[in-house]
Amino acid sequence: MITTRYKVTGPKLKAAVVADLHGEPTAELYKALQEEKPDVILIPGDLTTIGIDDYKHIDPEKLRKRAEGKERAIGFLKAAVDIAPTFYSRGNHEWGIDDEYRDKVKSTGAVLLENEWMKFGDAWIGGQNSAKRYGLEELTDEKKEPDTQWLKNSPEGYKILLCHHPEYYDFVKDHSDLVIAGHAHGAHWRLFGRGIFAPGQGFLPRYSKGMYEKMIISAGLTNTTWIPRINNPTELVIVEME
After folding, report:
1. Which domains occur in the chain, in start order?
2. Lower Cβ count inside 10 Å, N or C end of the chain?
3. DSSP 59
4. What is the per-residue pLDDT across 91-150, written as a single tens digit (0 to 9) for each?
5. What's the rounded Cα separation, in Å, for the pair 236 and 220?
6. Tell me: the pLDDT tens digits for 196-226?
7. Strands 13-17, 40-44: parallel, antiparallel or unpaired by DSSP?
8. Phi and psi angles of residue 28, each rounded to the nearest 5 degrees, phi first
9. CA-CA distance, 158 to 11, in Å (whole number)?
10. Cα–chain-centroid distance for residue 105?
11. What is the DSSP letter of 73?
């Protein structure tokens, strides 16, 4: 794991971005967060996997691993709030969210933002829900665009939007001052500074890792496949606003 830093203009604030943890927090991550002493911890989705996908059978072993990952995610939130106020938005792996999970998140003291804004100091922090199915190609009744109608009533002031999917950028950029995303996992392999493949964008994705206009994309903190990353370490992102 590396630590990647960005400086942007905004209310004085230091934010740690924990993206795509997938229920696998590490001692290295906890130590880094404690040493960084951020003002706020931002989680733009895929903290863990919730529920059962409705389009394929899930075997018992996978269900057991998901349950364990969910408990580790709740444990991470409990530890995170002891370091700094923690805000969390949903990613595609949280499509199966239910009230039981919402209550567990709430009990930790973390804030789950579902298509809503919350005031934090001199800024507003919002959470954009993932649409059902990721990617914006071949839209159907089942593959829908994200619901961004709620953004039309955004508050006045500096707005930080947690938006798991970088491919949603064109939908949300006019309603926020800073977008924090993940999902692309840095496009897994990176050659000559360019990502090779990202879910929802395909090969040679437009958005994969780094800063694009007013969007910062984390390469994430876990590797979710057996394929090794190349030139693309997992990362904790630190955003300093001043």
Report:
1. 2-241 (3.60.21)
2. C
3. -
4. 989 988 889 999 999 999 999 999 999 999 999 999 999 986 555 555 555 556 788 999
5. 7
6. 988 888 899 999 999 999 999 999 999 877 8
7. parallel
8. -60, -40
9. 7
10. 15
11. H
